[in-house]
Amino acid sequence: MTFNVRIVGAFLAAALLLATSPATRAQDSGNRLTAMDEFQLQTATDPQISPDGKKIVYVRRFADPMTDKRYSNLWTINTDGSDHRPLTTGNRSDVSPRWSPDGTRIAYLSDTDGKQQLYVRWMDTGQTARITNLDQAPDAIAWSPDGKMLSFSALVLGKGPHLADLPAPPSGAKWADPPAVYDRLVYRFNGTGYLKPGYMQVFVVNAEGGAPRQITNGNFPNGGNEFGPARASWTPDGKFLILSVNRHPESDHEYFDSEVYEFGVADGSLRALTNRKGPDNSPAVSPNGKWIAYTGFDDRYQGHQTTKLYLMNRDGSGSRSLSDTRDRDIQGPDWAPDNSGVYFLYTDQGDTKIGFYSVDGAFKKIADHVASTFGTNRQKTTARSRAGSFIHRISTQRRNILSSSRFTVAPSPITAAALTSKSRSGPRWATSSFTRILVAAPATAKNSPTSSITLIPATIFTT
Asked: What's the mean pLDDT when you consider all of the chain?
């Protein structure tokens, strides 16, 4: 035993000496990431499939060492990996691309003119029009089913609390700035800083431009909160917007007690579709307008409560849980184009997966190892994000799935996904210096949402 211990000790000592030798240290340092390597990394996010399933538009993020800032442009690529090229260029922030229902235009957000506004690009000519000119940046854009309107969220400023009237300074005097007064429980937030007085509201605007029209009203976070904006879900007839909102008088103290509401596009009328103690989030209307899928739980003020997937009739009746037997949080529901069920994200033992529940409650795992970053705040981490925080777009023709840090789901036969080296097992085609967009086709010939998928490389870009 002593002899074996000495042999092992000798080998360990030799290995330690080798690891600490100057040659080894030089070799290791050449392979290590440095702070400046951050400027060489580029990432593909927010992929969107065209309605005909032939093209993908995504956000390509990068950093500029000369300005020490992050920027993003829009790029496009065919689903077979060909014709990879930029739609926008330059040191600016182009984000949130969304295809029009007919696939002829893309709506997106950009600060190309100094501050973030809503733009529309015609894909055949490349012509671009700025649709809004707002003081407060729009966000969470969504097309109406007929492609004639766009909904978005934006902050409507309030006056804030008033304590006293201050005297006017003498002519030429330079006084200190007046004090800022806050009376809300949540008055500042990480990354955002001190919050401006007012509430996020939902607007609609003509897709060809014009004055935006405010749909939601009241001192409630109808259009989102400091965790993020709320993306409305249009009903198929284009008459209503479905949103998750906390409109309770004590919303600051019962922060997650949200309900699903319908807002009339014509007159802003509202009606609550859910009513329980606890969050009702991420509503998604089925393509036939018959059901609404959403997430939530009955809040018992426990340290952890599993977020379930619910299904109710369009009028709010007949609510039932589809995921009672699954002890995993459900995130980002999105409907299959044939109304057969709902796709969603869930995490199991640190591995993010795509699942599917049929309308009768049958479960099927669709994919493993889906690279997904849900953020660090409580709302997103526990699937309490507002509608559309994770799900973006379904291709109704080719029925594609697209996935990166966020994902879009629909049935086979063509699926697209983006994986990174975060995958713990299975294919690991991506490294820290590049991202690969993948196209996945079913392993079987059956054209069904429960077909298994096989990941194959589609394209790659490096820096």
From this structure: 78
Residues in the chain: 463
413 vs 25, residue with greater confidence: 25
Terminal-to-terminal C-alpha distance of the chain? 54
Residue carrying the six token digits 């509401």? 261
For tokens 């559309």, name the residue. 388
The residue whose two tokens read 């057969």 is: 340
CA distances to 238, 240, 308, 430 from 414, in Å: 28, 31, 28, 21
Mean pLDDT of 439-447: 34
> Is the bond into 413 cis (omega within 30 degrees of 0)?
yes
Of 320, 245, 315, 322, which is closest to residue 285 (Cα–Cα)?
Answer: 315
Residue written as token pair 């096989």: 454
Partners of 308 in beta bridges:
296
User: Kind and range of the H or E element at 8?
Assistant: helix 2-19
Q: Is 358 helix (H, G, I), strand (E, B) or coil?
A: strand
- How many CB atoms neighbour CB 419 within 10 A? 24
Between CA 245 and CA 428 the distance in angstroms is: 40
How far is 189 from 196, CA to CA, in rounded Å? 11
357 closest CA partner among 406, 319, 310, 399: 310
Contact yes or no for 262/245 (Cβ under 8 A): no
Q: In what order do the strands lie in the sheet with 85-86?
A: 43-49, 55-64, 69-78, 85-86
Main-chain phi, psi angles of 14, to 5 degrees: -65, -45
Query: What gap in Å lies between CA 439 and CA 457, rounded to an integer?
Result: 6
Q: Which has the minimum average pLDDT: 47-56, 344-353, 356-365, 414-423?
A: 414-423
Residue 137 CA to residue 229 CA, distance in Å, equals 11
Q: What is the pLDDT of residues 100-159, one digit of tens each?
A: 999 999 999 999 999 999 999 999 999 999 999 999 999 999 999 999 999 999 999 998
Top-ranked range on mean pLDDT: pick from 104-113, 412-421, 426-435: 104-113
Look up residue 402 and give its two tokens. 């697209």
**Tally of CA atoms within 13 A in the half-sphere of 370 that contains its CB:** 31
CA distance 431 to 295: 34
**Residue with structure tokens 């360990």?**
12
Residue 33 bridge partners (DSSP):
none
Phi-psi region of 45 (alpha: psi -120 to 50; beta: other; left: phi over 0): beta
Please state the separation of Cα 63 from the chain's center in Å.
Answer: 21
Instruction: Say yes or no to pLDDT of 406 above 50.
Output: no
Are residues 191 and 126 in contact, defined by beta-carbon separation less than 8 angstroms?
A: no
**pLDDT tens column, 33-51:** 888 888 888 999 999 999 9
Per-residue confidence at 22, pLDDT binned at 50, 70, 90? Answer: low
